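Contributing new complexes? Match this layout with zinc ion.
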Amino acid sequence: MCRDISLEENELSYLVTEMETSYVRLPKNQHYHGWVIVFLKRHASELYELKDKERDEYMKEVSRVAEAVNDVFGAVKMHYLSFGSLCPHLHFHVIPRQIEDDPHHAIKMDEAERFLSEEEYANILERLREAINMKRDG
Ligand SMILES: [Zn+2]
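Output block (do not edit by hand):
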């Protein structure tokens, strides 16, 4: 898992972009439309293992990505999830929730699968890259 997070494409996701402390990835399973994952580049399991400077930068990047996801997909509320029970490498799921989503329905990452065409992935990747770039150093 750790070595796969920098790949342009791996079994589960595409690389959206590389930031200072993180790799931003788009899961192929877009059951949650607009779902992206922000992986810490280096291996760590817990937020408290990071030095303040690195953690501040990483959280800033998570926030920038969330804002970019909001720009591209819109959201009534952004969800941030970090479990790490299956992959103990620090990462945050960023999921834009929509008005039609039941707020009482707990998110379960593997509850359903929805795969897109290559054109749809390419389109989403391009829009996300553009939106994230606009947030950089902003
Ligand atoms: Zn790792």
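Reviewers usually confirm one structural detail per submission. For this one: The longest strand covers residues 91-97.
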